[in-house]
Design goal:
267 residues; alpha/beta; 2-enoyl-CoA Hydratase, Chain A, domain 1; seven-stranded mixed beta sheet; three-stranded mixed beta sheet; 12 helices; 49% helix; globular
Amino acid sequence: MRQAIDLGPHLQAHLGDDGVAELVFGPEGSMPATDARGHAELGSIWQRLQAEPGVRAILVRSVGKGFCAGGTPDVVQSMLDSQTARLRVMQEGRAIVQGMIDCDLPIVSAINGAAVGAGAAVALLADISIAGHRAKIIDGHTKIGVAAGDHAAVIWPLLCGMAKAKYHLLLCNAIDGVEAERIGLVSLAVADDQLLDKAREVARQLAAGSPTALAFTKRSLNHWLRAAWPAFEHSLALEILGFAGADAREGVAAVNERRPARFEARA
């Protein structure tokens, strides 16, 4: 039996009697994205799940055509138009990263298809990330004229090294699961039809482990991420600043109109 927690049309949580809480991007059959409510919920859900009796591990997965494409067009447009929206998203972006780092429960991600923006952040900040061979991990920030700020500076150099991080973040490359495993960006890559079974197996194994041993190990290892916190704060602030500029308006317009962007601003 699984108890459901409603977090809006794009996000659900299911609490199982096996000790695993499944955080699920949706809706089913479409490309999941984070609307305003879903993005806000991603900032607080980790501590909420940690407080649930019987939950000992978290599995993040999707029922859609991909893992998660990041913010919906409405969220992106609001950031272009409103300082209030930009500041709200900045606070929520910080909360997502900090919430996953500070959560004592082990987090597993099952990455199917595209993981972009907030989707890539959640996928890669998981303690154990498992990608399908045909997954597509993309940090597309620079493509739309803003800094790669919502998680990349804090985690990519540690996962795959500075040279690879710069190569993929500056060029906005799509990285499939096989290549992501090869460069160390994800923990493991498996055949797509084995992804959910493998991720659940790992999550259940973690749920059966010593809660204190796993939490204390995670707390200790995550000090590497905390040491990079100034770089994260700087990158996040510059990303949000970028959404107020001409390059972001041009970048988003170019994506919507399916044409090359013509950037003219100078840093």
